[in-house]
Specification:
Elements: H1 3-13, H2 19-52, H3 56-92, H4 96-124, H5 128-131, H6 136-151, H7 153-168, H8 173-193, E1 196-202, E2 221-228, H9 232-257, H10 274-305, H11 310-346, H12 350-384, H13 390-403, H14 407-422, H15 427-452, H16 454-478
Antiparallel strand pairs: 1-2
Helix pairs in contact: 1-2, 2-8, 2-11, 2-12, 3-4, 3-6, 3-7, 3-10, 3-11, 4-6, 4-7, 6-9, 7-8, 7-9, 8-9, 10-15, 11-12, 11-13, 11-14, 12-13, 12-14, 13-16, 14-16, 15-16
């Protein structure tokens, strides 16, 4: 048994964990999750760079539907969260049979939800870009991209559910490595699908020098690179193909290999039971409502940005992708926080739950503060790698430097929210997210965009993220998010 598994077992069995043990376990779970989140955003980063090389209109065709894609992705993500947090609580309580039962029931329920999501997405894919205010020159590509994305909803659900289940069971390494593999596969498939077959002329020569032993002269030669030439649609197909491979592997690993989840050799019904569905609804319902309304807010901001033109739409979309390199480590630490808090909560260990909550939150703030400083300095390079369009690059750089100041507050809200999810406390934090988004960000964007353009939108975003971080830290310190914990005699 490795160190990580031994330390997790101590949580379940009421064993003592020193401060050093707690820090070590936090690091062991956080580092793979951070690397996975960085690789995930690199996948989207490279996607956008490949599409960006086709011009501002190609980037804008993805940017106009990006927030709507987040909405559909949130449905899938919330379903996975509602079931996987129950698994974390049962594993923490050493109820392995109960954890397997929840996992088994989640498969059928989640796939049914994915089928509904896919159907709705396919039906609205063609009018959607027009609803969002997109111009005719980008709507055709935007519709096709969104359609392909929604057709992959069942695969996305399998991927998200299996990965979330493994993480909450304490295995962060496998889903993290799988996510990294998906990044490489996505780049490979996109390289083949986005661009047409093309020939590159490579002149290679070794010139005379006083240090040369031999003097070779190579004539020019041609390298033919195969490609399907699908453009924007190729990016969607490439991502879908990569996700399919990884999703099936993660499902196999969870069902066959994971000790806490393994269904092979353990019989049971796949039909969801009311208590499991009810608890999944209690956990995921507020998060789902929050994400729906927050994505509606993002769509509203997209509508505010749309009249500013294709350059602003592209700079906004690519800037969000570039900024993701900073905040994705926060989501990685948040995954570790959900696992640690969830299992400590299930084990009835109040003090340990609180300590893990603060350790992970402070770690997230520290990492994202550093990443914010890097983003401020590297903003021109980040935008240059995403698009050759000088106007888009300049505007995106200026917006990134505004946003860099908000990364500490953003980190606090990301990780603290993950802490509350691990404890099954989602209602009030979800309302806090909604209030912050609608009352601060959307309001400021609507007021500032007409006068300051995209700069005003991003300034409003920075103010809102800082405000959100402050109120989440206050709840972490003074809120009653641990009121449902069933404290045991062996608490720490």
């Amino acid at each position: 048994m490795n160190t990580k598994d031994e330390l997790l077992l101590r949580i379940r069995e009421g064993g003592k964990l020193s401060t050093a043990d707690q820090l070590k376990l936090t690091a062991l779970l956080s580092i793979p999750a951070i690397l996975a989140q960085i690789s995930s955003i690199l996948m989207f980063y490279i996607d956008d760079a490949m599409v960006g090389s086709l011009g501002a209109h190609a980037s804008a065709s993805i940017g106009i539907v990006a927030t709507s894609m987040w909405l559909f992705w949130s449905i899938i993500s919330c379903a996975a969260t509602g079931f996987s947090v129950q698994v974390a609580h049962r594993v923490g309580a050493n109820d392995i049979s109960g954890a397997r039962s929840v996992f088994r029931q989640s498969l059928l329920a989640s796939l049914a939800l994915a089928a509904v999501t896919m159907t709705v997405g396919a039906l609205i894919s063609f009018p959607l870009p027009h609803w969002l205010g997109g111009s005719d020159d980008i709507c055709a590509d935007a519709s096709l991209y969104f359609l392909i994305f929604t057709l992959g909803a069942p695969l996305s659900m399998i991927n998200m559910l299996a990965a979330s289940m493994l993480r909450c069971a304490g295995n962060i390494k496998v889903p993290s490595l799988a996510n990294m593999v998906m990044c490489f596969l996505d780049v490979f498939f996109n390289f083949l699908l986005i661009f047409p077959t093309r020939t590159i002329h490579l002149p290679i020569s070794i010139l005379n020098s006083p240090f040369s032993i031999f003097n070779f002269q190579f004539s020019d030669f041609e390298l033919t690179l195969p490609g399907a030439g699908l453009g924007v649609a190729g990016a969607a197909v490439g991502t879908l193909a990569a996700e399919a491979i990884v999703a099936l592997y993660l499902l196999w690993f969870a069902v066959v290999r994971c000790p806490e989840l393994r269904l092979v050799g353990h019989s049971g019904s796949f039909v969801p039971e009311k208590p499991v569905l009810r608890e999944a609804g209690n956990i995921a319902g507020p998060i789902f409502l929050q994400r729906v309304l927050m994505n509606v807010a993002q769509i509203t901001i997209t509508i505010i940005v749309a009249p500013l033109g294709a350059v602003a739409i592209a700079a906004n979309a690519l800037g969000i992708t570039a900024e993701s390199l900073c905040y994705m480590p926060g989501y990685g630490i948040g995954e570790a926080a959900t696992t640690l808090v969830g299992q400590s909560f299930g084990a009835g260990r109040r003090r340990l739950t609180e300590r893990f909550a603060w350790m992970t939150t402070l770690l997230g703030i520290g990492v994202m503060t550093l990443m914010g400083a890097v983003m401020y300095m590297a903003a021109p390079l980040m935008m240059a790698s995403l698009t050759p369009d000088e106007a888009v690059r300049q505007l995106g750089t200026e917006c990134l430097r505004i946003e860099a100041w908000a990364e500490p507050g953003f980190a606090a809200s990301i990780v603290a929210m993950s802490v509350f999810v691990g404890a099954g406390d989602t209602r009030r934090p979800s309302f806090m997210n909604l209030f912050s988004m609608w009352a601060v960000r959307v309001t400021l964007a609507a007021l500032l965009a007409p006068r300051y353009g995209l700069h005003g939108v991003w300034f409003g975003m920075a103010v809102e993220l800082t405000f959100r971080g402050i109120i989440f830290l206050l709840r972490l310190k003074f809120g009653r998010w641990l009121k449902k914990i069933k404290v045991k005699a062996t608490q720490q």
